[in-house]
Design a protein that fits this description.
Elements lengths: L6 E7 L3 H8 L5 H20 L6 E6 L4 E6 L1 H8 L4 E6 L5
Antiparallel strand pairs: 1-3, 1-4, 2-3
């Protein structure tokens, strides 16, 4: 039986020309544009793929087009098949 407790997963996105453009041309002021673009993009993916209130996005990453989110194993499988998603991996704690 699968646990409904959310665990931390990292989601990495497919190539996005707008992300590449913003990343390559960012300046101090432009860094905010990239942060805002990625945060909105990741929030929209989650809102259109998963039930509201069933997940907790922790942060978006700028160095790569990806984000961290607390979700169940079933939700991770749903995200794996979502358009634009490249990889969904569960966080691995090192001993």
């Amino acid at each position: 039986m699968e646990s409904e407790k959310g665990e931390l997963y990292f989601v990495f996105m497919n190539y996005d020309p707008e992300y590449e453009r913003l990343r390559s041309t960012r300046t101090k002021g432009g860094a905010n544009d990239l942060d805002l673009y990625l945060s909105r993009k990741h929030d929209e993916l989650l809102a259109t793929t998963l039930e509201p209130g069933s997940y907790k996005k922790n942060f978006s990453m700028v160095i790569v087009d990806g984000f961290a989110v607390e979700i169940t194993d079933d939700q991770a499988n749903v995200l794996r098949s979502a358009k634009g998603v490249r990889v969904v991996e569960k966080n691995q704690e090192l001993a």
